[in-house]
Amino acid sequence: ITKKQKKFIRKWLNDFAKDQGHGFLAREEINALATLVKGHPRPVEEYINRKLMNFAINPSSGGLAMTGSQMPSARTEIPSQSRYSLTEANSHLPQETLRLVDKYVRGYQRQRTRNDGRRTVNNGPYKCTYACGYRTKRAFDWRRHEETHEPQELWLCHFCNAKGEQNPFLVNRKDKFLKHAKDVHKQYEPETVLDMSKVDFHANFDPKCPMCPELSSSWDERCKHILQHYDDDDNSSRSRRLGRGGRVMRARRVRRNSSIMG
Ligand SMILES: [Zn+2]
Ligand SMILES: [Zn+2]
Ligand SMILES: [Zn+2]
């Protein structure tokens, strides 16, 4: 089953559930969906079962039923964000590093919340999934913003730390770390300082997509998946304006990543 087919299936199921107000899928509908993606019903059904947790087999009908996100799935344990404990997940780190990391991540998340709502320039198709109101026109900025809510990579300056400084330089952005290395540790190659300072940090991430039943297996996959939704939405609002048909595909290629005006 190809990426393109998967994307189509996700979108189709989403629309289906929205239109029908329920997630029941009859056998004929799975077959129809398979025909639409020019695939066999079996892998389509398997994909839905494996990846889209809210759709499950309904044995009485031989079809699939959407079970609702609040219902626990018997088949797969859904990792829950609330169950994540930074200190437990990172107990392999030296105690002092762990203390600094914990303080940093908590402080960072608090700071973000305090600054929410202060932004004046907020537009573009890419919206923050942590509901702070941030939006942007650039996918790159969007991802970087998401990582302010949930830091994924950390660098704790090896040299500042070795000197026993009380607050050694610790940051979740590579560009900021490289700047620190260049400014403060001029005698070393910045990239070398970067490599020496990378924390083996086990970050938190919520595998559940906020927009569909898809589960991602990594932060990277999650971000790419969510961006796909925004691009799809962007294109479908554009296609409503342009009318359906071939022009949409052309517009999509040409105007990808540009803002929607009007
Ligand atoms: Zn945000
Ligand atoms: Zn340093
Ligand atoms: Zn999704």
Task: List the topology elements.
Blueprint: H1 3-20, H2 27-36, H3 41-51, E1 55-58, E2 63-66, H4 86-89, H5 95-115, E3 126-127, E4 135-136, H6 139-149, E5 155-156, H7 158-162, E6 170-171, H8 174-184, H9 190-197, H10 219-242, H11 246-255
Antiparallel strand pairs: 1-2, 3-4, 5-6
Helix pairs in contact: 2-3, 8-9, 10-11
InterPro entries: Znf_C2H2_type
Domain C2H2-type: 126-154
Protein name: C2H2-type domain-containing protein
Could you characterize what this model shows?
Keywords: Metal-binding, Zinc, Zinc-finger. GO terms for molecular function: zinc ion binding. InterPro entries: Znf_C2H2_type. There is one protein chain. Helix 2 packs across helix 3 and helix 8 crosses helix 9. The strands form 3 sheets. The chain has a two-stranded antiparallel sheet with strand order 1-2. It has a domain at 1-68. It is mainly alpha-helical and 262 residues long. A hairpin with a 4-residue loop joins strand 1 and strand 2 (63-66). The chain contains 11 helices and 6 strands. The longest helix has 24 residues, at 219-242. One zinc ion is lined by residues 209, 211-212, 214, 225, 229. One zinc ion (ZN) binds at residues 128, 130, 132, 134, 145, 149.
